[in-house]
Amino acid sequence: MTEDHRLAFTDARVNLLSFTFGTSLGFSNGTTMQFEAEFAITGPDGERRIVDPVDPTSLAPVLALHGDTVTNATLDGPDVRLHFASGTVLEAWPDDSYESWQYDGGGPERRMIIALPGGGLAVFGPPPTSD
After folding, report:
1. Residues 25 and 9: beta-carbon distance below 8 Å
2. What's this model's pTM, rounded to 2 decimal places?
3. pLDDT of the chain along its 131 residues, tens only?
4. Is 98:117 a contact under the CB 8 Å cutoff?
5. Three-state SS across 42-62?
6. How many CB atoms are closer than 10 A to CB 72?
7. Are 61 and 53 within 8 A, CB to CB?
8. Distant-in-sequence, close-in-space partners of 118: CB < 8 Å, separation ≥ 6
9. Where do the H-state alpha helices sit in 15-79?
10. DSSP three-state, residue 41
11. How far does Cα 33 stand from its chain's mean position?
12. How far apart, in whole angstroms, are the C-alpha atoms of residue 30 and residue 53?
């Protein structure tokens, strides 16, 4: 049985970018995503770029997300994909050794989803409600 882990991103705008030991995106609805392992950004031009959160020379594609709006978000096991209004797609997957990404949902019923090393998810907070 597959659990439904909904991601509250639709129509959320990227309004905060943070670069420390990872790369974080903050969204207008209070949701955040943090990346601590490589992920990919495919621009509207179709070029796919690998982003390493600790390599400053690879971070330029992330800057282009500022102000962009999520139109669709999917979670397939530990693989997450965000589609943006500009046509950009962000993809993240599990790392063999580290927690690669973390989702912190906004709103009154906050949920946290973490991509575990080697695959799988850790989910904290209330289960999603069906609308």
Report:
1. no
2. 0.89
3. 234 466 887 789 999 999 988 999 999 999 999 999 999 999 999 999 999 998 999 999 999 999 999 999 999 999 999 999 999 999 999 999 999 999 998 766 688 999 999 999 999 886 655 54
4. yes
5. ECCCCCEEEECCCCHHHCHHH
6. 12
7. no
8. 94, 96, 97
9. 60-63
10. strand
11. 5
12. 21
